[in-house]
Every structure is written in C-alpha cells, then in structure tokens.
Amino acid sequence: MLSTVFNDKGYQPTSEQLEALQTASEFAYQVWRSRTGACQTFLRSYPLNSTLTRQQIDDLIQDYTLDENYQLANEVKVMSGLRHLRMLLMMRWVWQDALAVIELEQLTDELSEFADGCILFAKEYTYQQLITQYGQPTFINEKGNVQIDDMAIMAMGKLGAHELNLSSDIDLIFIHQARGETDGDKEKGTRSIDNKRFMTRLGQGIIKLLDNNTADGFVFRVDMRLRPWGDGSDLAIHLSALQKYFAQHGRAWERFAWLKARVVGQIAPPFYDEIQALIKPFVFRYYVDYSAFSALREMKSLIQNQVAQREDLDNIKLGAGGIRDIEFIVQAFQLIYGGRHPQLQVKSCLDAMQALCELEYLEQTTYQELQAAYRFLRRLEHGIQAINDQQTQRLPHDAHWQHNLAITLGFENWEGLLNTLNHHRYNVNVPFERMVTERQVPAQDDNELEPVNIDEQVTHLNQILTEENRAQLQDFWQSKMVANLSDEARERLDEAYPVIVHALLAHQEQQQLANVALPRLITLLEAICRRSIYLVMIAENPNATVELIPMLSASPWIAKELARYPVLLDTFLQQRYRHLPDKPELRDILRQQLLRVEPNDEEELLSVLRLFKKNQVLAVAASDVLAERPIMKVSDSLTYIAAVVLEAALERAFAEIVKRYGYPIGQDGDPVTEADCGFAIIGYGKLGGLELSYSSDLDLVFLHKIKEQGMTTGEVSVSGMKFAARLAQKLMTYLNTQTRDGRAYEVDMRLRPSGNAGMMVVSCHAFETYQLDKAWSWEHQALVRARAICGDKRVTARFCDIRRTVLALPRTIEEVRIEVTSMRIKMQKHLGTSQWQQQAGKFHLKQDAGGIVDIEFLAQFAVLAYSHEHPTLTKWSDNVRIFEEVATLGIWEAEVCQDLTDAYLRIRAATHQLALSEQSLLVDESLWKETRALVQAQWQHLMGVESTE
User: Fold this and answer.
1) Contacts from 295-301 at CB under 8 Å and sequence distance 24+?
2) CA torsion sign, 559 to 565 to 566 to 570?
3) Mind giving me the DSSP string for 650-677?
4) Cβ atoms within 10 A of the Cβ of 86, count?
C-alpha cells in the first residue's frame, strides 16, 4: 500500500516514491519539479492510490476551462487549461504506473475516459461558437420535417476499444446525418452555410482545441486518416455517403478498423441506430466469412514485408511478435466468425481473446500466452512512452534509460527484460505464422527438374555454366561475406540454394539463358544474404523463384533495382505483377501503407512513398518483360503510380503545413478545407501525356486559388502566398529528397511561368495572364501535353478552362507551322545525333528526324492550328487520342493518323524495352528505315517542309 502524507501544501511523496518517478520518466519528474505546488494540490485531491471516475474527469475538464470569474473561458485560455490538466493527469498516471498501483485496464480506461470527456467538451464549445455565426445546421427528414443535424464522433482504434495508452494519438471519424444548410438569418446577424461546411468547421475546431501544439503542449494528437477516402477528403461524411462508401468502396482492411468503432458520448437514438445498422453488416458477415481469408493473407503479407523491410527489432508494436501481431490474430478470428457469434463482437482485445478461448477458437495455452504477452507488451509500451511523453514503441538505445525501464518494470537488469520480451514475442509469433498460411511446394510438372538430389543438380548446373560463371559462383561461396554470415543466415542460404539451382536449371531448359542470369543473381544474393529473411522468402516460394530468374536475364535494370532495394523482392515472389492494379486499387494500397506511418514520422513517410513507387514500377516492368501488356497499358500504369504518389504527397504536405500555420483563406473568402485545399498539381510532358517510362522525371506546375495577402487561421499566421510556397517546398521535399531508398521522382519545374526565374507556385489568375500575354509559342506547345493530376477540383477545373481557352486561340496555320518547325530544328541541332553518328548508320529514336519528337510535334501542330475551329481537339493531352480526334474531325486522312499512331507506338515500345535492357536510344538506322521514312514523309506532307536530317 502507498503511504500518503499530507502537509499544508498538499501531498508529500516519500523519497522512494520520488525516486520511482525519476527512474520512470524524465517528463513526469520535470512536471513535478517545475510545478511542485500545483502537483501537490492536485494529488491531495486525487491521491495516487485512488481511481478516477468519469464524473471526476468531467468535473476537472469543467474546472480547468473556466476563467477567473468562473465563466467559460475564451479559446486561448480553454486550450491552455486543457493542456495544463493533461500535464497533471499524465504526471499522476505515469507515477501510478511506475509504482504499480494501477491495473492495465484501469489505466487505459481512465485515459480513454479523459479523451472522451475532452472530445465532447471540444465539440460543444466549438458548436456554440459556430451557431452564433451561422445558426444551427438543419436538414429535411423523410417526413418532410425540418430537423437539427448532429455530428457523431466515432472513436476508432485504441480509443474505440477503451485501450488508450499513455501517449496515444486518437483516431476519429466525424459523421453527420444529412445534407442541408444552417438556419442562419442575416437579420439576426448570422449567415446560412451548407451543413458540409458547418460540420467541416466543427471538426476543424475540435482538432484545433485538442491537437494544436502550443507553448503548453497538446491534449491529444488527432489522426483523421481512417475516414472514408482518407487524407484529402471531406473531414465529415453524412450517413448516405457512408452507406454508399461501405457498399461500393469499403475494403477488407477497413473492416478491421471499424471493428473497434464506438460513438463518443450520447447522440439521439435514431441517429445512433442508423450508424450501427451501417457498421455491423459491413464488419461482420452472418455466415462464416471465408471470403476474408485472401484479404487477411494480403494483410499478413503486408505486415511481414514491413517487418522484413524495417528489420526493426526495437519496435514492440510493429516488430515480429509485437502488439500488432496479437491484434491481427484476434481481429482475424473476429472478422471470420463474429457474424455467427455475437460474443465476438466486442472491441477490447483482451475481451475478444477470452471469448475466442471460450468458443474454442483459441486453445487454452495459446490464450494464456497471448494475453500474458499482450499485458506485458502494453505495460512495456507505457514504460517507453512515459520516459519523454512521446508516441513511440521503440526500445530505448540509451543505456541509462534501458536500465531505468528494466527497474520500473520490476527487472534487475536490461538483459532480464529482453529475455522476457523475446519469450513473449516467440509465443506470439508461433500462432501468428499459423494464421491464413499458404506455403508453396515446387511445381512437379517436369520430373527431370524435380529437386530430389541437390548434388546431382549442382553438378548439372556446373556443366552448363561458362568457365567464368563457374569461377564467379565459386568465389561467392568462398567469399568473406558468406564466411562471416551468422549461423542462422548461413542455414537460410543453404535452404534457399536448392530452390535457386532448380530455378536456374529450369531457365536453362526453357530459354538457354542461365549464364546471362547467374552474374545478376549472385549480385542479388550478395545484397540479401545479410538480411536473410529474403532467403526464407526464396526457400518458401520455389515456383515464384523459377519465375524470377527469367526477369534477371531479360532486364539488367530489374536485376539492379532488386539488388539495390532487396525489399522489392517480395513483390516478385508474391507474383503481384500478374495483376496490375488500376488507379483506385493503387490508391488503396498506398493508403494502407501510409496508415502505418505515424503522422509526425517524416522519415518513414518518405520511405513508404519511395518503396511503394519502386514496388509498383517493378511490377509493371515484370509484366512488360513477360509481354503481357500492350505499351499503352504499361504507360497508363506508370502514370497512375505517379498520380497516386503525387496525391498522397500533396495530402500529407497540406496536413503538415496546416498544422504549422492553420488554413489559408480561399478566394471565396472562407478558409480552405482538406477536400478543397486551394492547390493543384499540373502534369506536363510525359506525365501529362500519359506516356511515362521507367525512369521518367515529372514535369510539374503548381497552381493555387488562395488569397495571397490573406493570413492563415493558425496561432503562427502567414500570408496565403507564403502558405502556398511552403506547401510547394514541402511537396518537393517529399518527392525529390535523396534517401537510402532513393528518390520518389526527379521533379522538373522549368515549364512553370517564367521558367526557373518564376515563382514555384502561381495563382490561376497569374497563370492565365501569363499564358495569354507573355508565353512563347513553345510554351503553348507544352500546354497541349498538360493535364491536371490532383488537388482542389475547383483549381483543376479552372486550369482546364484556361488550357482550353489558350489552345483554341485564333492562329493561322502558316504561323503555327513556322513556330513548330523552327522549334523542331532547334531541338534537333541540340539533341539529335552528330554527323559522325549519322555516318555510322545510327538513329536516335527520340530526337532524330522521323523519331518520336516529330510525331509529338505533329500532334501539337494539329491542336494549335485547328482548335479554334474544332474545340474538341483540346480535350486530350496524349498523342494517340489527339490523332484519333484529328481523324474523326476529318482534318487529316484517317490512314495518315493511323500510320502516325502505329509508328509512335512502335517506337515507344522499343524505348521501353531499351530502358529495361539499359541500352541507349541510339540504334542501328537500318532496323528503322521503313518507320522513319513514313514519319518523315508525313512531316513533309503535313508541315509542307522537309524534316531536317
């Protein structure tokens, strides 16, 4: 029992208690030292050996948000009061945990109740402020009656399950009832706005009160990324839109998220019932849900791949055998069987675990081990987070804090803590590995290649290898690297080698290219041996390894990418290149991966963006090598990947800059929102023309519709112009920064107004003025291939209007012909083949006469010369559809357009293959005589001048 001592000043801890606090937490001890009086008074009223009720928590929130006259304080004082209260409560909870006088469930429950209380206070406080400006939000119900629209705040994740930890963020989703508008009345000094805008501002107000990091800190970090469509979508969604989303777009991983969803506080029963009626059938299926297995397998694969990628043994949540693995086991059972067993429809992980044991889905021993591991890991998580009040699950690297953490958790030393941790991790990993497993066995189609005797196969391999390759393979096995492998890694290499030999022999039999593949394979093995989880992947995926070897022989580019970034190997071994995802699927894949990145972890964000891009581009390349996709589909896929990365980068960058400066004011006079951010990305060149290749850079222009002189809404306020510029800079950082995973994309901004001398981001009005009054003809040519990629729909629509207007300006055919021809001659002089290269019979597929640029210029000529009379020509930014439209309109003969399209696609396909083979676009002219002659003849026919050599 705690001995409690009081004096006139309040609570007086014993020296042992103070030592326990100092050992456990630098943060809480500093709070005690710097605010001793306030802490003593607080602990006198709420002693360490007592629990807190919800009523006490609500009373505290009320007390700390009053001013000196005991009235509800203004916003600044409310924010300060809530943060001061949080500091005192955190000090108390950390101390209780350090002294082991509070149970895990009690601690997480009190933290969750405090979060609920703060959320409801923030909702009511913001609501009262908003209705004085706009009136109350209303809608017409089914009976034709006017009703007040309410907003339900859904607690997701740990808060939804009342499992909040010491430094958790809170995952929220805002749902309101229906479309409508407020009952604002100008005569009463209020103005009417639509409910969506009202609810967005209500949500923004709640987030500001709780999440903004002021001089007093924060109350809770608020994470809104689990809402339908994620970042960049409306902050609040109404019921019918949520119903439509669940029915048409809800993914299996989102069923996991909504499993823990809980309405915070009380809302009217009909509204509550409608929400539950949507969530329950989305999460739980009445019959045993075998359809969930493939989705669960995908999720498990994602988890395993991230573990391999991170090699993050210090992370007790995301590392192998961590908290996430326990939650996956429990929630997978809940999703599959919860529809038939209502007792599984609970939110708490421990409660669900117990129900699974009672229903005999978990053996008693497994249940005991899992719940013991869960309790230990959660207590350890609290201990880690208590040190500096940081949202982290990583074990400390500092020896001092390792020792302190061990003492706080009741161990004599750090080694003792690690041994217990590893024991629990093992107990979690065993059932996790058993979940939804699908292990391959080698295909037995070819009896000669059946891996029965490895010695025979190695002998056979040696016979077919060249002398040089045999020596290289021997050097690999005798290398220092192999000699210095750990026992585990060497064992894994030995297990993988028969699979590799089998795959090489199969490749030799089918294509006689084992000698081409082997040096590239050895480079790959050298890259993955020390990260031996990849050797396990090879050993466990023999059929996929047979498919991998032809990729290595076909493309040195693929081989190099895999060797540089071994984490990409998983995509190949899962054979994901068999199905190239469309844009919505890509968006969903990236969203899932980004949800695993903490909002403030920029390093991990950059890593996820880069590895997503590389994984997906490699899958396209593999599909290309197998000749399973036509060139147009390949380029579409590469363009979708870029668009999805740009979308995600813009959403994250916007959230970061808003956190720092608040929202800028839009040109309509209201602050912008996440869904209408006032900013857009325009793609030029290959991105705009849907023609991306494997290593294309991105030609980008940034536009905005923000009041440049208006100030942002944050405590630290900047002008709209500065906000837009910093958003553009943050975007460039996300895309362009070189990390250990490379760059996401090389970005070229030289096509913006005034080129390198111009602003990085301009308003739509400035862009329009420039294009109409100052732009050179070649800039109008570039505009033909420009396309809005992502961002605020109002900005992208405005760009489309400007582009249409500029391209359809009246121009004489002769004027356009002269400008386009002049530009073509300049380009060819600078970028085409030299005289001696031409004499040597070389042809540059892109830059020489009769190459791709000639065809592109013909398309641009057609748009600029004829759009004034035929506005539909401005519709497309890609050459193929421009030529289709030119033929449809009868401007040029259909046969001419088809010939140009065929030539264009033929050359494009060759450039892709050359890129995969890492070969130059300078090719033997003799192989391209016919195509080149056709293009040159059409240039002469359509432009009236000869294409220059």
Assistant:
1) 295/251, 295/252, 295/253, 296/252, 296/332, 296/335, 296/336, 296/435, 296/436, 297/436, 297/438, 298/252, 299/252, 299/253, 299/256, 299/328, 300/328, 300/432, 300/435, 300/436, 301/570, 301/574
2) negative
3) HHHHHHHHHHHH-PPBBTTSSBP-SSS-
4) 21
Report which secondary-structure segment, H or E, holds 96.
helix 75-98
Per-residue pLDDT at 398: 92
CA 802 to chain centre: 32
* C-alpha span between 402 and 413 (Å, rounded): 8
- Cα angle: 854, vertex 838, 823; to 5 degrees: 30
pLDDT of residue 448: 40
Run of H or E residues at 687: helix 685-688
Helices (H), 578-676: 583-595, 602-625, 631-661
Structure tokens at 245: 């989303």
Contact 877, 786 (CB under 8 A): yes
CA–CA gap between residue 473 and residue 159 (Å, rounded): 55
Hey, what are 382's tokens?
């609290």
Which residue shows structure tokens 């805002």?
174
pLDDT, block means (10 residues), the chain with 949 residues: 50 92 96 94 94 96 93 94 97 96 95 97 96 94 91 96 92 96 88 94 96 92 92 92 91 88 94 95 76 67 66 75 89 87 93 94 94 96 94 90 96 95 93 66 43 76 90 91 87 89 89 90 88 80 84 89 83 73 91 85 90 90 78 90 96 94 92 93 95 90 95 92 96 91 90 87 95 93 96 96 96 92 85 74 86 93 95 95 95 94 92 86 86 91 67
Specify the DSSP class assigned to residue 711: B
In angstroms, the CA 523 to CA 532 distance is: 15
Q: What values do phi and psi take at 222, rounded to 5? A: -105, 125
913, exposed or middle or buried, with CB in 10 Å at 0-12, 13-18, 19+?
middle
pLDDT of residue 294: 63
Residues with Cβ < 8 Å from 237, sequence gap 6 or more?
Answer: 173, 174, 175, 176, 227, 228, 245
Nearest in space to 319 (alpha carbons), one of 418, 465, 463, 464: 418
The residue to which tokens 């002693």 are assigned:
47
Work out the burial of residue 474: count CB atoms within 10 Å of its CB; fewer than 13 is exposed, 13-18 middle, 19 or more buried. exposed
Using DSSP's 3-state secondary structure scheme, residue 68 falls into coil
Distance CA 18, CA 95 (A): 9
- Dihedral sign for Cα 66, 69, 72, 77, please: negative
**38, 140, 591, 693 from 6: Cα distances, Å:** 14, 59, 53, 74
**Predicted local confidence at residue 310, as pLDDT:** 58
- In sequence order, the 6+-apart residues with CB closer than 8 A to the CB of 379 are 97, 104, 409
pLDDT of residue 10: 62
The structure tokens listed for 528 are 């993955």
Residue type, position 187, single letter: E
What is the predicted pLDDT for the residue at 370?
Answer: 96
**pTM (2 decimals)?**
0.83
Residue indicated by tokens 């002769």:
814
Q: Pull the structure tokens for residue 311.
A: 């090699």
Q: Output the CA–CA distances (angstroms, integers) from residue 719 to 332, 664, 724, 753, in the order listed.
A: 49, 8, 9, 21
In angstroms, the CA 392 to CA 412 distance is 24
For residue 463, what are the contacts with CB-CB under 8 A and spacing of at least 6?
none
CA–CA dist 498, 477 (Å, integer)? 14
Please give the Cα distance from 877 to 782 (Å, whole number). 10
Q: Residue 575: name the closest of 615, 532, 608 by CA.
A: 615
pLDDT at 450: 47
